[in-house]
Structure formats: structure tokens, C-alpha cells
Specification:
The protein has helices at 7-20, 34-47, 70-90, 94-103, 109-112, 136-141, 148-159, 164-167, 186-203, 213-220, 226-229, 251-256, 261-277, and strands spanning 120-121, 127-131, 168-172, 207-211, 233-237, 242-248. It has two domains: 43-89, no CATH class; 106-277, 3-Layer(aba) Sandwich (Uracil-DNA Glycosylase, subunit E), CATH 3.40.470. A six-stranded mixed sheet has the order 1-3-2-4-6-5, with helices on both faces. The protein is globular, with a radius of gyration of 24 Å. The N and C termini lie far apart (62 Å). Helices cover 48% and strands 10% of the residues. By secondary structure, the chain is α/β, with parallel strands linked by helices. It binds uracil.
Length: 286
């Protein structure tokens, strides 16, 4: 027998399960052929240029069929990008940027995330780390890299004499958790891009460390696999200044492939050396 008293809890638990598993939109009860849907849309677009009825009368104009508005969708994407750029550009401080991001509705991940995950560490630090996107623990706490991969990152930092609280600033290319911990889509990363760009500009570190392939790709525009790019130094241009940028392996990958920690160790030693060799700009660790 169904207990109606517990029904809302059961529904809530089921919805939580769906979100956890990566289900982020309700579709239909029955399977649906999306290829068929797009074929219909294509046909509608093609027929848009064909007059559907010949009008009568000397001044009558030909009419077009109603079409799904593809250009409207593209305009919306453009507008979202413009809004993101403007919000980010107008933020003069990191707290103002955080507030601006909290008002931004142009990334669908916000709808399923529990918290905005903006940053951790010291905004005055000389080294900034940028990961991919928050996971479950980060989403619950609103702080980046606090789960297992964050704990490994802390140990890696400690091994080269750095502490999270004092020596580094940490953020992600996307500040909301993708459902089911999937990789953010290129659209989600693009929607949030102006914010991480501005965050780097405002933090203005001497060295930027990209953790994992998606971060390398989003910030450095390098499409090669992370096993090829790791350990290499790049230049990140904030528009004001060029910053040395290191590509390295993501701690979550190292948890899955512990043997690769030796490569990460090489990268972190190179980072330690670079910190010692790079003249500090205005930033001084607190
Ligand atoms: N992985 C990331 O890329 N970022 C986090 O904040 C946590 C895990």
C-alpha cells in the first residue's frame, strides 16, 4: 500500500536521484525519435522560403509558413554572451564579480546546482589554479576542491611548500556543478568564460595553473590531449598583462590513475622552481 504521508519525500528522493545521475530535464514517458524531430524542423525551415498560398489581388503579398525560429535561438545565445561579458567587465573587484555571477542566468547548470562555487584560497596569492567544474562535495559546500580530488590537491601543494589558505587562489572554468559530475558542455563553458577570464584578471596572479584538459582548452585554447600538454608552459594574456601558464593533470584523474602521479610530481616541481624564479608582480601572499 502506498503511504501518502511519505509521498512528497519519496518524490523528492527520486528527483534528487535523477539530478545526481545527470538527468537535468524532464522529457517524455515514451522514447522519442529526435532525428525525426530535426528532420521535421529542417523541412519546416526549407519550406519557409516557399510561399504557402498564392494571394489574390493586385497588392496582396506572398505569405510564408510559420517556422521554428533558429535565428531567434542564435540571437538569444549572442545576447547571453553579451550579458555575460558586460556583467563580468563591470565587476571591479572579486566580491563584485561573485555577486554578478550569482545574478547571471545564462548557464543552465545554475538550475540544478545547489550552490555557486566561486573560489577558495587567497585572492592576493601569486599562483592561481583553475579546475573544471565543482563536484558533489563542492556543490554542497559552495567551495571548490573540497572533495577527494581537493584533498589530493592540498597534499600536492603541501609537498612543494604551498598552503591553500595563503599561497594559492582556486577557481573553476564553470562555477556550477554539472549534474552527475559530467564534463561541462562547450556551450556551458562558453557561457561562463567571461567570468573566469575576469576572475583571472582581477586576481592577477604571476602564475596560472590549468588543472586538466577542459581547463587547458578553455583558458589556453589548446586542443591537444592533456597527456601531451601537461608539463608545458604557455602564455595567458589577460589583455593587460601576460602570465605564465602551466598545464597539468587534474587530481581526479590522478585518483583514477595513481601511477600518473609521477608526472604530476614533475609538473609541481617545475611549478615550485617557476615560483622561485618569477619576480613577484604587485601580488604579495598575505
Ligand atoms: N574538480 C574540479 O575541477 N573542480 C572542483 O572544484 C572539484 C573537483
Amino acid at each position: 500500500m502506498i503511504s501518502f504521508g511519505s509521498m512528497p519525500n519519496a518524490i523528492e528522493a527520486l528527483l534528487d536521484f535523477y539530478i545526481e545521475a545527470g538527468v537535468d530535464c524532464a522529457i517524455d514517458e515514451l522514447p522519442r525519435d529526435r532525428f525525426q524531430d530535426s528532420a521535421v524542423a529542417r523541412a519546416a525551415i526549407a519550406s519557409a522560403h516557399v510561399p504557402i498560398a498564392q494571394p489574390h489581388g493586385v497588392n496582396a503579398k506572398p505569405q510564408s509558413a510559420a517556422v521554428p525560429s533558429v535565428s531567434l535561438a542564435l540571437e538569444t545565445i549572442d545576447e547571453t554572451a553579451r550579458a555575460a561579458r558586460e556583467l563580468a567587465r563591470n565587476a571591479d573587484t572579486l566580491p563584485a564579480l561573485r555577486e554578478a555571477l550569482a545574478t547571471f542566468d545564462g548557464c543552465g547548470l545554475k538550475a540544478t546546482a545547489k550552490n555557486l562555487v566561486f573560489s577558495d584560497g587567497n585572492p592576493q596569492a601569486r599562483v592561481m589554479f583553475v579546475g573544471e567544474a565543482p563536484g558533489r562535495d563542492e556543490d554542497l559546500q559552495g567551495v571548490p576542491f573540497v572533495g577527494r580530488s581537493g584533498q589530493l590537491l592540498d597534499r600536492m601543494l603541501k609537498a612543494i611548500g604551498l598552503s591553500r589558505a595563503e599561497d594559492v587562489y582556486i577557481a573553476n572554468i564553470v562555477p556550477w556543478r554539472p549534474p552527475g559530475n559530467r564534463t561541462p558542455t562547450p556551450q556551458e563553458a562558453a557561457a561562463c568564460h567571461p567570468f573566469i577570464q575576469r576572475q583571472i584578471e582581477l586576481c592577477n596572479p604571476d602564475i596560472l595553473v590549468c588543472l586538466g584538459g577542459p581547463s587547458v582548452q578553455a583558458l589556453l585554447g589548446v586542443r591537444e590531449g592533456i597527456l601531451r600538454t601537461r608539463g608545458r608552459w604557455f602564455t595567458y594574456n589577460t589583455g593587460q598583462r601576460e602570465i605564465r601558464a602551466l598545464a597539468t593533470l587534474h587530481p581526479a584523474y590522478l585518483l583514477r590513475q595513481p601511477l600518473q602521479k609521477r608526472l604530476a610530481w614533475r609538473d609541481f616541481r617545475a611549478l615550485q622552481k617557476a615560483i622561485a624564479e618569477t619576480a613577484p608582480s604587485h601580488n604579495i601572499s598575505a
